[in-house]
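[Meeting: bench + compute handoff]

Bench side (C.D.) handed over the final construct sequence. Compute side (W.E.) agreed to return the predicted structure before the next meeting so the bench team could plan truncations. Sequence as handed over:
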Amino acid sequence: MDPKRRRLLDVAFLAAVAAVVGVLVAAPSARGPRLPADADHRVFPARPRAEAEAACPACHSERGPAPLAAGHPPKPQCLHCHEAARPKR
């Protein structure tokens, strides 16, 4: 194979790999934001998941003190996307 053609193929391959890595790094996370580390949300990690998720609509319903945003998907499994906040060090 001609050295110039080989070099061109190597550069094209490296550019393709860099593009794939760039897309993967820039892709949004499948997870939503973490739960706040406040007193209202701190109890959820200690509860069974189903029990914790059953408590979410009390505050996050349309009439609750902190309703979900208009574009939020209607999911009954809150902790599938929203993880508990990491403890502060």
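W.E. noted at the follow-up: The helical segments are 3-26, 39-42, 49-55, 57-60, 78-81. C.D. will use this when planning the next construct.
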